[in-house]
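WARN no homologs supplied; continuing
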Amino acid sequence: MTGVAEPVLTTIKPDESKEIVQKAEATPEQREAMAEVARLRAGKSKPETVVPTISAEGQRAMSDLAKLKAGIPFSRSYSPQAEIKEPEPPVKPLTFEEQVIADWRANPAIRQEFVSLQNYTAFRKAEAQGRARIHRGVVVR
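OK structure emitted
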């Protein structure tokens, strides 16, 4: 004996050859259905269904993908310290008058230099129109 397995010859019945040809030409779904029928004929039950599990990293990735699709920004670091913050609404630009008033209220040096808000507003309008400017600390017209 040489250790090589000798081929086993079997005879195929005519109805078995038809089944073999059907399996070869079948789609994967049809093959699965044929295997199920064969199991039922043999009295065997369907094999247990395996439930796939998702790792914690996979769950975080799926959560980030859902947030991305929803338009919510997220951090690429998966550390628990990373906190997702809502984007701040855009700041509405101030009008010229609102900016002048904000400067007046925020800067005490301006309030000390100009007697009133009306005087400061008149100066800023003249400055914006190019009719006045500050040169070496003095207003030049």
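The first helix runs from residue 14 to 25.
OK
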